[in-house]
Design a protein that fits this description.
Largest interface: A-B, 24 and 20 residues
Oligomer: heterodimer
Helix content of chain B: over 70%
Distance between the termini of chain A: 40 Å
Order of helices and strands of chain A: EEEHEEEHHHEHEHEEHHEEEEEEEEE
Distance between the termini of chain B: 33 Å
Shape of chain B: globular
Structural class of chain A: alpha+beta
Strand content of chain A: 25-35%
Radius of gyration of chain A: 24 Å
Number of helices of chain A: 8
Low-confidence stretches of chain B: none
Largest sheet of chain B: none
Structural class of chain B: mainly alpha
Order of helices and strands of chain B: HHHHHHHHHHHHHH
Helix content of chain A: 25-40%
Strand content of chain B: under 5%
Number of strands of chain A: 19
Number of strands of chain B: 0
Shape of chain A: globular
Chain lengths: ~325, ~280
């Protein structure tokens, strides 16, 4: 196991086209870090640079204190799980897991022992003779992880490994990943565009946008104190409401999470929502509408407790000013109270 | 079909039966002719029932060729044809799979230029470049040799193109996974690409086996020695021309022999084909 350091890591394909604009991060030994961002934000590129599948244009990547910029993937002591699993279609599950070990020249018994152990952890024991095509999506996913585990690497790299699974299986695999990480304690870098995955798996996460790390921190810390309007709008479902407002005489954006808007009597209301869409979710109800009474204000979402009777029309709401966030409307960055 | 329309059924069957007859009848006549003596064939109308000369005719062509024109034995010609029909597809597959591997998986200067060069040669059939090719082979002293018969026909843009198209359908992640696993490019080629290409190779083999077996113009040019004749050329040489009588019974026997190996290859490899088509491994 090892720590991973990213020091001002940059990537450009041509001098004009820069896709990673200097990312800095120290990942502790054994930490589970999620790289989260919308598609095209450079998160996969960053991961592939750590893996050695993309070159590093500038900056330094170190694994276990050793700069790996110019090392081949096989010499970096990493294992990678791909989005489409990238299993060798013509090899059995056993051979898929054993292939890398055979290339490294491990003894047959040693390989068999490692594969057996990984198969046990992942409950793949009954499928070792099968070809990948005879497996379900979740089983293939496990084989891909098994292939990573048997290498006993310093770092696991996951490139959106759960996005090809159906919703139910994704939740299950998410839990299994957490268990696995607790059990093996291997430093892990996990790329996803799914904020629920990120929030549930990460010990710390990097929110990326346009090739920049917008914010790095623990999931709840990022949720509670988003550093930019991008992070505020990306984390949370529905995301934080961003309402143009004045703060100390200057244009600013007021950010309030949907759950922090509570219905109240007309007299106490800080704002009124003209509700036009209701989504009952059972545990609570989401209502959407425009601010103000003429339908011209910012669009906001409000999370109501299920006991509240939601209906189309005017909904007076208030919020605790302590739960309000302020952002500079020009730069989008957070204004500390 | 779920519909029950007797006329359509009748009509479609009639067309199919006519089609089968059109193809099968000449084959049948060929076979019948190979079982008669020359005299009985020459009677008009020719008998459409098998004669009693089957063994004699086939023994004659296999051991000694025709009695009047070419004296090349069909057994030797079959061996020659087999060598040609095996070396050409195997050579083509070996060379084109490696060139396709280079073109798809390596970034080298003028990569696309070379690809287009190969591609452009698709437009040049053998016949167009046959004179210069013949000159080269003649100057290299390769006339009347297996090398002369096969080498010029091995280079194949079609096969290279086919393999390239196939390789491009293999997800990049597979190559990357192999890289992370520590496989060198050639190791990836052997352990992953080659096994995955089995079906493509089988298809190419069948097509190119028949291509090699049926070569006519090229062996006609480069073989003058009877011991180097291929079966197809042998048939041509058995027709003496001029005033000599063609021994049609022997020629037909040779024709039957010439038809068997390609038919056999298609029948045996068809199983493989279907297997490959059902098991889409990707």
């Amino acid at each position: 196991m090892a720590a991973v350091s990213l020091r001002d890591v940059r990537k450009s394909y041509t001098p004009e086209l820069q896709v990673i604009h200097g990312v800095n991060m120290e990942i502790a030994d054994g930490e589970f870090v999620v790289i989260l961002g919308p598609s095209g934000c450079g998160k996969s590129t960053l991961l592939r640079m750590v893996a050695g599948l993309e070159t590093v244009t500038a900056g330094e990547i170190a694994i276990g204190g050793r700069v790996v910029n110019n090392l081949e993937p096989k010499d970096r002591d990493i294992a990678m799980v791909f989005q489409n699993y990238a299993l060798y279609p013509h090899m059995s599950v056993y051979d898929n897991m054993a292939y890398g070990l055979r290339i490294r020249g491990l003894a047959k018994d040693d390989i068999a022992a490692r594969v057996k152990k990984a198969a046990e952890i992942l409950e793949l024991g009954d499928f070792l003779d099968r070809k990948p095509r005879a497996l379900s999506g979740g089983q293939r996913q496990r084989v891909a992880m098994g292939r990573a585990i048997v290498r006993e690497p310093q770092v696991f790299l996951f490139d959106e490994p759960l996005s090809n699974l159906d919703a139910k299986l994704r939740v299950q695999m998410r839990a299994e990943l957490q268990t696995l990480h607790r059990r093996l304690g291997t430093t892990s870098l996990f790329v996803t565009h799914d904020q629920v995955e990120a929030m549930t798996l990460a010990q710390r996460m990097i929110v990326m946008n346009g090739g920049r790390a917008e914010q790095i921190g623990a999931p709840l810390e990022i949720y509670a104190r988003p550093a930019t309007t991008f992070v505020a709008g990306f984390i949370g479902s529905p995301p934080m409401n961003l309402i143009p407002a004045k703060r100390e005489g200057r244009d600013a954006l007021l950010g309030v999470r949907p759950e922090h808007l509570e219905p109240c009597a007309q007299g106490e209301a800080l704002m009124t929502v003209d509700v036009d869409l209701i989504e009952p979710l059972g545990s609570d109800t989401l209502v959407y509408g425009h601010l103000g009474t003429n339908g011209a204000g910012a669009r906001v979402a409000v999370r109501l407790h299920q006991s509240v009777d939601a209906r189309v029309g005017h909904l007076p709401v208030r919020y605790d000013p302590a739960q309000a966030h302020w952002f500079d409307s020009a730069s989008g960055s957070r204004i500390e109270a | 079909m779920v519909e029950n329309r007797p006329w359509v059924t009748f009509f479609s069957h009639a067309v199919l039966i006519l089609g089968v007859l059109a193809v099968a009848f000449p084959l049948y006549v060929t076979f019948i002719a190979s079982t008669h003596t020359l005299e009985t064939i020459m009677q008009a109308p020719m008998s459409l029932l098998p004669g009693d000369q089957l063994v004699e005719n086939f023994t004659q062509v296999l051991t000694a060729g025709s009695t009047k024109a070419s004296k090349a034995a069909a057994s030797q010609m079959l061996v020659n044809s087999l060598v040609m029909a095996l070396v050409i597809p195997l050579g083509k597959i070996a060379i084109s799979i490696i060139s396709a591997f280079a073109i798809v998986y390596f970034r080298f200067p003028l990569r696309m230029f070379f690809f287009w060069m190969i591609f452009v040669t698709l437009m040049l059939p053998v016949e167009v470049r046959i004179i210069p090719t013949f000159k080269v082979i003649a100057d290299l002293g390769m006339l009347n040799s297996y090398a002369g018969l096969t080498v010029p026909l091995i280079a194949s843009a079609t096969a290279t193109f086919l393999f390239r198209q196939f390789f491009m359908t293999i997800p990049d992640e597979l190559a990357e996974a192999a890289r992370v696993d520590g496989a060198s490019p050639m190791r990836f080629f052997w352990d992953v690409l080659l096994p995955l290409s089995k079906t493509t190779m089988a298809a190419l083999f069948v097509i190119q086996f028949i291509y090699g077996w049926n070569q006519y113009l090229w062996p006609l040019l480069v073989t003058t020695d009877e011991s180097m004749y291929t079966t197809v050329i042998g048939i041509k040489r058995m027709m003496g021309g001029g005033d000599s009588v063609n021994e049609w019974n022997l020629i037909m026997a040779t024709a039957i022999l010439a038809m068997l190996p390609p038919a056999l290859v298609v029948m045996l490899m068809q199983k493989w084909f279907v297997k490959g088509l059902v098991e889409t491994e990707k």
